């Protein structure tokens, strides 16, 4: 299997960086100092970062499932959703 170059790292590897950037964007938008055009661009970038983070979390969950039961990852129990305090 060919090795990935550092530029082709999995989304899991960039999760922290994407999350930090997303938090910075939110702070800028909440400050209210951006123009409408800048706010729209920041919002678009934020949506992209959110999707990257979500994908990274899904891949991390899959990796954990594979490590837990490599023979039958589909039978492993899903993690509880955040905020699902029944």
UniProtKB/TrEMBL annotation:
Keywords: Cytoplasm, Exonuclease, Hydrolase, Nuclease. It is found in: Cytoplasm. InterPro entries: Exonuc_VII_S, Exonuc_VII_ssu_sf. Heterooligomer composed of large and small subunits. Its EC number is 3.1.11.6. GO terms for molecular function: exodeoxyribonuclease VII activity. GO terms for biological process: DNA catabolic process. Bidirectionally degrades single-stranded DNA into large acid-insoluble oligonucleotides, which are then degraded further into small acid-soluble oligonucleotides. Its main location: cytoplasm. It catalyses: Exonucleolytic cleavage in either 5'- to 3'- or 3'- to 5'-direction to yield nucleoside 5'-phosphates. Pfam families: Exonuc_VII_S (PF02609). Belongs to the XseB family. This is Exodeoxyribonuclease 7 small subunit. SUPFAM superfamilies: XseB-like (SSF116842). One of its GO terms (cellular component) is cytosol. It is an enzyme of class 3 (hydrolase).
């Amino acid at each position: 299997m060919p090795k990935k170059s550092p530029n082709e790292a999995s989304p899991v590897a960039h999760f922290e960086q994407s999350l930090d950037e997303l938090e910075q964007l939110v702070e800028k938008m909440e400050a209210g100092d951006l123009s409408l055009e800048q706010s729209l661009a920041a919002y678009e970038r934020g949506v992209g970062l959110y999707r990257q983070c979500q994908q990274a979390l899904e891949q991390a969950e899959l990796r954990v499932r594979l490590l837990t039961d490599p023979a039958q990852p589909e039978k492993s129990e899903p993690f509880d959703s955040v905020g699902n305090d029944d």
